[in-house]
Write a structure and sequence with these properties.
The chain is an alpha+beta fold and about 180 residues long. The protein is built from 3 helices and 8 strands; from the N terminus they run H-E-E-E-E-H-E-E-E-H-E. A 4-stranded antiparallel beta sheet has the order 1-2-3-4. A 4-stranded antiparallel beta sheet has the order 7-6-5-8.
């Protein structure tokens, strides 16, 4: 193998790996990609996703780490950690929902593979918890962007756990 072929191989393999990170497709659809980051929106750390296909791209917030629940430092730290975890979940097409729960008397938000799982089940991963005693259902609902919320806030008297689809209501993007 000459030097140019060897160099082309070294450059091509990592490039292909980078292009497929965050991509997923479903049968009959073009390749779709998701890029998840943590940004400051109006001084609030916010997990934002960019959903795109070959023709369209849409940026939407997912979760805002609100000051009534998090200090500035904790909010930013949890935002970065959550964005990194969600990036992996989208890339692997592994987790499908955000859920809320109480574990060890602390409210937690987690990612789960399917409805019906709690945050300490196999097939779930805790994204963050709070030391403050708040309703986990209200916590998650208040942090969610409108594209990920249901039309009505859940009742904490009748709903012990909510499940929020990690795909916004308008996904997939039109072709």
């Amino acid at each position: 193998m000459d030097n140019s072929s060897y160099l082309a191989t070294l450059v091509t393999v990592p490039t292909i790996a980078l292009v497929t990170v965050g991509s997923f497709s479903t049968p009959g659809e073009a390749s779709e990609a998701v890029d998840v980051t943590c940004v400051q929106q109006a001084s609030v750390p916010t997990v934002v996703a960019t959903f795109s296909n070959q023709k369209h791209s849409q940026v939407t917030p997912i979760l805002s780490f609100l000051p009534q629940y998090f200090s500035a430092d904790d909010g930013f730290r949890h935002c970065q950690k959550t964005a990194q975890a969600l990036q992996v979940f989208y890339a692997q097409n592994r987790m499908n929902y955000l859920a809320s729960d109480t574990i060890d008397e602390k409210p937690v938000v987690c990612a789960v593979e399917r409805r019906g799982l709690n945050c300490n089940s196999y097939g779930s991963e805790i994204l963050f918890s709070l030391a403050k005693p708040v309703s986990p259902t209200e916590l998650l609902y208040s942090m969610l962007d409108r594209n990920f919320k249901g039309s009505q806030p859940p009742s904490s008297r009748t709903v012990s756990r909510i499940y929020t689809d990690l795909r916004p209501s308008w996904w997939p993007l039109p072709f």
